[in-house]
Amino acid sequence: MTSAGGVDRRQLKALLRAYFVLSTRSMPVGITGAKRVRTLPFILFIYGLLGFVIGAMAPMLDSTFLFALFVHMMTFFVVGTMALNEAAEVLFNARDADILGFRPVNGPTLVLAKGLTILGFCGLMAVAVNLGPTILGFLCKDARGWFAPVHFLSVAIETVFLCATVVCSYGLIARFLGPERFQRLVTAAQILSTLMLVVGFQVLPRIASKMDAHGFLETTPLVWALPMTWFAAIDVALASTSASTVYAVGAAAGVTATLLLAWIGVLRLPANAAVESRASAAPVTPAPARKAELTERSSGWSRWRLWTVWMPDVTERAVFRLCVTYLLRDRALKVRLAAGLAYFIVFPLLILINEDHTGIMPVMLVWMLGIVPLSAIEMMRLSSTPEGAELFLFAPVAEPAALFHGARKAALVCVVFPLAVWSVTIATWALRETPEKLLVVLPGLFLIAPMSLVPGLRGDFVPFSQAVRSGERAAQVLAVFLTMVPMGIVAVGVFLAQKFGFVHVAIGGVLVVAAALHFGLSKWVRTRSSKALRR
Amino acid sequence: MIRLNQLTKRFGAFEAVRGIDLEIPAGQLVGLLGPNGAGKSTTLKMLTGTLVPTSGTAEIAGIDVARDPLAVKKLLGYVPETGAVFEALTGREYLELVAALHHIPEREVDERIERFLTFFDLSTAEARSKPLSTFSKGMRQKIVITAALLHNPQVVFFDEPLNGLDANAALLFKTLVTSLAKEGKTVVWCSHILDVVEKICERVVIVNQGRVLEDGTVPAILERHHATSLEQAFNQLTSTENLHQRAEDMARTLSQ
Lengths: 535, 256
Prior knowledge:
Chain A is mostly helical. Chain A is 73% helix and 1% strand.
């Protein structure tokens, strides 16, 4: 029944079946009854489409290596972010520990079951993203006809590598740091890895595009330190006329690293599951000083008069405080935010790398602020313990819109404001030689307030009332990108207005539209919300 | 069957369990009582292998839980206070998962599940078709109890097992538990419902602030504390205040 490595096959089969049912069965999740994973086919379709757009670049490139490197970078970003988010939910599910912690399941079996579950979902995304490049990759000038199966293989290895890396890293953190420090470090590690993935995905192709395709490896040998290079090397070593020993060595490095990580993650860190369940089960008692500090900080909010002027409704203030507390303390929310807002770190880097003289990028940086409240507020719908939000259903909430406005204002204060200061500072620095272009930034700032009302129009907004499910994050990223389109159109309009000398009129126009939108949307949110909690 | 030797658990500076010594022979039905935060659940978690003791040992059937948790987990059944289940699974799917995890021979799984479903008056069709998320609290608790007993464990830990059970189901379950003890199983019953513990447990252990305050049969405890009920003895042992006076004061404050 148990293999030499300690994996119990019957248990593994049963766990995989259970996890498969758990991740596919359509059921209401959370107290506001959101339906799960119905968006998954749509997400896969969109990522598939994106893959085909990238695949279409193949005939334009004469280096299979550069094409493969770009495709593997994208895969690394999409699948890596997915693996990080899925791992947070699957590996460290506190409820899971309550159900399985006392069952006779050994570490390797549980870790392998969880790892394979993550791998399954990540594999779906990897296939979607790589369908186009797999089919079209042979059109690269030095690619061979059998590029497709080779690329499929390299993507499969890359997906295993990413999932094994995540499982392994978490296992190591849990094993060596103990449960008390575990949660904090995992949060920091997740945020950092997410930022690195986003930064890498955006910045590396730009650096690569500046280099000579053929002399790329000679001029930048350090590129071999990046794992995606190893997987691109598999494509070249097996399916390109440019294959050489260098690529064969790179490919071998990729395969070896994957096997090693999978072996360490599943079999050599058998304490993973046990440590994980302990980490979830152990009550982490805050040190007395920290506890006092939290209490003092919390009571400080309510004493400050300004809040009561801005938020006269007591429910709104309570939800505001709840959301601020979550933004400061909740690991999952912080990680989701880091992934969603990493572009604000990436963009300034791009501004520095691109030496943009048009002034478009600094302006876009500020205009992108409009999507921040959308992203942040949507994230505040989700929770790993949505039952807690039943509190709002039983409380005599006179004005249900207050639930939304409390969350909205928390997002504005804690997320949008700091990012606005950061973005405007960067934009001001970048446009120091053409300060008149800063005028184009203003309408972007005006639109933040009305944009923050948009999430109130979707479904019943009850904070932290929906369970987090596979694909949720990808769906949000898509929604945010779709919202960027109208914002972009307005931004281009203001840009053109400046070019043709009537920027002040355009700014005034946007201000009036923003005010009207704010008024109209506020009223709409109030009308919608009044029905929400009475269903 | 169960032996605790100076069992201690610390979370940072906080000591949840402070050197508990306890021995429970096979076939005994023991009530583990204590106020909130007394260390009962932490002790149970150490006994079920989900928490590692800071110091001391916990042994079940001569096996050190910390050294070989897997071997111990095969011997025990546990109904956690949370009653957590995989809600997207049907009752049947959940029990089949548990059966596989405990290596119940596949040919016996159906029969054992049916036996429990019938015992608890759960409809087979409902257990087969409906996800646990649609079950009432009581129905779900019956599934959790079934999941704890399905593999015929030698030692069973119940943490507030009557949560959500109706009066008939509770009566049925209490009778089952006393019968299990008579059959030689060791049962530890953790609860705040002292009347039930007084009626069914042959031995009661009262803990507070991580220490054992009292250990003995119900009549012996009542005699030692000159109490007429277990509730009275418990109050004397674990509270320094006059609870009646405190409650009356609170009611008065609320009415003002």
